Amino acid sequence: MEHYKIYERGKFLALDLGGTNFRVLLIHLGEHCFDMKSKIYAIPQNIMLGTGEALFDHIAECMANFMEEQDVFYETLPLGFTFSFPCIQEGLTKATLETWTKGFKCSDVEGHDIVQLLKDAINRRGVSCYIFLGDMVYLMAVLNDTTGTLMSCAYKKHNCRVGVIVGTGANACYVEKIENAENYNGEPGPQRMVINTEWGAFGDNGVLDMIRTEYDHEIDQYSLNPGRQVFEKMISGMYMGELVRLVLVRLVQENLLLGGIGSDILFTRGQFFTKYVSEIESEKRDEHTNCRLVLEEMGLGHANDRDCAIVRYVCESISRRAAYLTSAGVSCLLDRMNDSDVTVAVDGSVYRFHPHFHDLMMQKIGDLSPKIKFELMLSEDGSGRGAALVAAVACRTAG
């Protein structure tokens, strides 16, 4: 158990959909504790590219199985739903999907309320004991993973004002003064609100073309959403490994790497995984054990030390660019808020597992915003914890 002062209490469910894995969480909030149990479920490729009904049925089934395993199937539990895709949010329990990202392309979801789709899927489980699921779970909040990340740190660090995700996708949110929120049409009263920037779509109008490379254009051309999420495709884990592969292919073709001899795996899209970048960069610069293992796995066992040094340099160049672009976005938000001391909550597989991403961001944000004191705080299980916390606050407010 972790010990914090928490005013919301009780058991809460949280769902977290934001990539190729889907998580269900059961969170128990007490006066001085935060206890969490969770399980990860894979989302098969055929579901990611199938119908919306199949996707939400899969989510409902995973949730039902998890509730049975945790022996809470017949308890009445509030639910927070982290749905990490661009949405138009009209309320705490109403969000319409604008466009799929991160490799999803389910039909009949774009333009629809994802809360209603989830409710419909839960209600479709009206067989045997599952009939109770629709009655015993009630949705209190739907939110983006950046908001969940911010919330999960804000109950520990009250100066947390920014949430950032650098994982399969890339996005950020921040706390804005209500008078600056031009599209806010809610009730008067709150002085600040959380703005989901959806900065992954920055550059979709061409403003980043001056810094995009031929490799960025090729990534975009062969993606599921050409012309969209331009900024995200320069940063996130879904594309970082493929960017490295494209550069390596070019170097091999120009006889500058591996003696001009490639392999079928190297020439196959998507076969240089982003995890390879972290593995290669985790070694000391003059060591090549991990790099050789990666290259051997790709059928490139003939690499020499010079080849390994070049591969590492390519990885470093692409990961450093990603860290610097992310830092530029964070710095813009810090400058806009103009607070003297800000905690930035960060989550996502790239930030978590890349050995230098945190340090690169600390250095670059410091360069870009030298007058602002800031801290980068890893948000542990941010999406799920944040969803539960928002649901808990919504319950307290509603009660």
From TrEMBL:
The Hexokinase C-terminal domain covers which part of the protein? 161-393
Write out the catalysed reaction: D-mannose + ATP = D-mannose 6-phosphate + ADP + H(+); a D-hexose + ATP = a D-hexose 6-phosphate + ADP + H(+); D-fructose + ATP = D-fructose 6-phosphate + ADP + H(+); D-glucose + ATP = D-glucose 6-phosphate + ADP + H(+)
Annotated GO MF terms: ATP binding; D-glucose binding; fructokinase activity; glucokinase activity
> What parts of the sequence cross the membrane?
none
Q: In which pathway does it act?
A: Carbohydrate metabolism; hexose metabolism; Carbohydrate degradation; glycolysis; D-glyceraldehyde 3-phosphate and glycerone phosphate from D-glucose: step 1/4
Q: Which residues form the Hexokinase N-terminal domain?
A: 8-155
List, alphabetically, the SUPFAM superfamilies matched. Answer: Actin-like ATPase domain
Its GO CC terms are: cytosol; mitochondrion
InterPro entries from the UniProt entry: ATPase_NBD, Hexokinase, Hexokinase_BS, Hexokinase_C, Hexokinase_N
Please give the biological process terms from Gene Ontology that the record holds: glucose metabolic process; glycolytic process; intracellular glucose homeostasis
Q: What EC number(s) is this enzyme filed under?
A: 2.7.1.-
The entry's family comment says: Belongs to the hexokinase family.
As for what it does, the entry says: Catalyzes the phosphorylation of various hexoses to hexose 6-phosphate.
What name is this protein filed under?
Phosphotransferase
Query: Which species is listed as the source?
Result: Ladona fulva
Give the taxonomic lineage as stored in the record.
Eukaryota, Metazoa, Ecdysozoa, Arthropoda, Hexapoda
